[in-house]
Amino acid sequence: xxxxxxxxxxxxxxxxxxxxxxxxxxxxxxxxxxxxxxxxxxxxxxxxxxxxxxxxxxxxxxxxxxxxxxxxxxxxxxxxxxxxxxxxxxxxxxxxxxxxxxxxxxxxxxxxxxxxxxxxxxxxxxxxxxxxxxxxxxxxxxxxxxxxxxxxxxxxxxxxxxxxxxxxxxxxxxxxxxxxxxxxxxxxxxxxxxxxxxxxxxxxxxxxxxxxxxxxxxxxxxxxxxxxxxxxxxxxxxxxxxxxxxxxxxxxxxxxxxxxxxxxxxxxxxxxxxxxxxxxxxxxxxxxxxxxxxxxxxxxxxxxxxxxxxxxxxxxxxxxxxxxxxxxxxxxxxxxxxxxxxxxxxxxxxxxxxxxxxxxxxxxxxxxxxxxxxxxxxxxxxxxxxxxxxxxxxxxxxxxxxxxxxxxxxxxxxxxxxxxxxxxxxxxxxxxxxxxxxxxxxxxxxxxxxxxxxxxxxxxxxxxxxxxxxxxxxxxxxxxxxxxxxxxxxxxxxxxxxxxxxxxxxxxxxxxxxxxxxxxxxxxxxxxxxxxxxxxxxxxxxxxxxxxxxxxxxxxxxxxxxxxxxxxxxxxxxxxxxxxxxxxxxxxxxxxxxxxxxxxxxxxxxxxxxxxxxxxxxxxxxxxxxxxxxxxxxxxxxxxxxxxxxxxxxxxxxxxxxxxxxxxxxxxxxxxxxxxxxxxxxxxxxxxxxxxxxxxxxxxxxxxxxxxxxxxxxxxxxxxxxxxxxxxxxxxxxxxxxxxxxxxxxxxxxxxxxxxxxxxxxxxxxxxxxxxxxxxxxxxxxxxxxxxxxxxxxxxxxxxxxxxxxxxxxxxxxxxxxxxxxxxxxxxxxxxxxxxxxxxxxxxxxxxxxxxxxxxxxxxxxxxxxxxxxxxxxxxxxxxxxxxxxxxxxxxxxxxxxxxxxxxxxxxxx
Length: 910
What we know:
Elements: H1 3-21, H2 26-43, H3 53-68, H4 77-80, E1 91-93, E2 99-101, H5 106-111, H6 116-125, H7 129-159, H8 165-177, H9 180-185, H10 191-206, H11 212-228, H12 233-247, H13 251-273, H14 279-283, H15 293-302, H16 308-311, H17 329-350, H18 369-381, H19 385-408, H20 437-444, E3 455-464, E4 467-469, E5 471-473, E6 477-486, E7 493-498, E8 504-506, H21 513-519, E9 526-532, E10 539-548, E11 555-566, H22 586-603, E12 611-615, E13 624-627, H23 629-639, H24 643-646, H25 649-661, H26 678-681, H27 692-701, H28 707-718, H29 751-764, H30 766-779, H31 794-805, H32 825-834, H33 841-861, E14 865-868, E15 878-880, H34 882-897
Parallel strand pairs: 5-11
Antiparallel strand pairs: 1-2, 3-4, 3-6, 6-9, 7-8, 7-10, 10-11, 12-13, 12-15, 14-15
Helix pairs in contact: 2-7, 3-7, 7-8, 7-10, 8-18, 8-19, 10-11, 10-12, 11-12, 11-13, 12-13, 12-17, 15-17, 17-18, 19-20, 22-33, 22-34, 23-25, 23-27, 23-34, 27-29, 29-30, 29-31, 31-32, 32-34, 33-34
């Protein structure tokens, strides 16, 4: 076809479309309403919600808004945490003690009016947490499906401005049922559903005439788009750029209206989170965009697990859109703006982990799909019979895949995608067709339709000797007891969580006469779950109970009990012989000794490690927990000499086994341990580059049986020796760094790393240890080697005795042995006393009493600051450990009680 013929054809097409859309009778509104109703019915036909941690805060927050007139989660934290306690990543504790949502507050605020009938129902029926939980699940599904259905209905009206009814209907069906609008937006309160609705609304306004009212409305929606989901700033900016052109002399109105919601969100972020970026800013994820661009693009577009063109193959026809760009200035400008926004956002997400967590399909690209549909209009308008048939077939494939997601998918299908640790093969599972969620979900069968299954029950009490109690002695046998019925039958399972720890579950139920008589239900409903209190620290503990109606179903809240654990009359731990309990310092300190040891046992996780807390500033506020090998190795060092006396032999051996298991085939060790250990670094954890420090520490305190691995590790470490004889941190070239936020020196040598490696080399390669000693001595007071301990000198002070023992008499300058962080003076003094730098018995007892006062209250508010990240990096991190505080206290008590020699952290080889 010649250019003139193509122009003539396009002109004829445009004329035909104009004729079809020139008159918009009321039946367009009727059709739009009918589309919305049909979508709402279909979205709810699976009778279940497809939720995730990202959606829980939005699910529950409207109840706090209406009942408690607050945008914090304080009053509903127990239910919102879903039994995870401190592991509920979607909740963030901020400096003033409040708990807020990790995610922006816009979505729950905008949907809050929809919850008014639910609020009225709870007021009439009685407001209990269990009842609220079930109502919240129903409201989440209804609200999400309503937002998605409304966006589809409005999209039809938008498309009618450029297309005849058949084309508009076809594209609306493609959007509503052939994209993640169905399985993501309509199934739970993700930010994506609101984002799509806001974008469709903005397009409706921007494609209509500009009036004062429409300019203000458009600006409001454009401001809400990034306020609702920050990455959509790109899409909002693209629409906003065109909006200023569209508004012409009314452009200031658009700007003012857009600034209004952004200002409100900024106020909320600063007021409640203390950071302009809200809770996102407190989390700090510098490695979010630390991925390769081209593989990311391929993954987003064509991977079996997340590819947009796989899940919605009709978008392949967008390659023809450039040939059908509108010729009118305004339409052409809008198309170019949308294209630019879409391309930039795709590039952004391509630099991230494009698997987008535990979710269905190309979730990251959900928000832009109304824009993509709009760009498809001229392509579909110009299609002839064969092209239209191919397009319809592509839509049918997409609808089929999304239907599988709606009725078969659960997050179990995503487990296979994250089985390979970060590295060159990390994303390989996402390219295997057997791992595509529409394939793996079918293998597992239909997901349970349990949203409307009524769950009745109650967490009655904590029982000790068959009597309800709220206070128990450590080690006392207690049971959590209650009843539950899923509709008229026994539930599948009930589980309790103590402080968000590992679930304790039962599937055995017995007949409760009181429940049978009151409800006339014959099914066994009673449950009882034993709780081991021997490892619980004295104080209050929160126990929550949840029930499941079916496998792969949703948990339902039953209730919460507060259990207070008190110390036994005897201070002797069960594993600690009375003869070796330290007695010097008085009964008060002996009791504290037992308590500190019990806390360490309690805090140790099942695999053998302890968690470290980290903050973004030099105050112990809003800490977040992580596992790392460094702390566990340090605690093994500190605890080993007193393990028998404190009843910690088992804890130390478990920790040592755990550390040995972290050694990789090449002998290296990573800060977070083996990258395939999900319980350690999280389901979507990040496999950080191996490092010198953790490799040296683990090989010294928990060596592996294969000496060839150690030789290999030392050879690798040797490759990162500087010309002046120091050793760098990271054991990989810069281009292969993963999950690292480097500072001004991307791979620096550090003082404590040199110390730890030197102690290992003294045992394995004494000559190299001597050379390293001389290198360290010459730079001991230079800022460039005080990278991770400049504000936290505790660990280098502790290592001085080790260095003297191996013949490296290095002295730290006095200026390096001072606590620069307020409140850390006491811990620096403890370290100096343990290293015999200063102190006497009287001062030791005084220090021990100060630390142990009020049940070791100091450790809750100001534990030892062990180290920090490179302070020249983009985000600051400070690492603290309550358990290190207990261990230091125990060492001080052990040294004082037994007149021990100065601290010698170096251990014999095991």
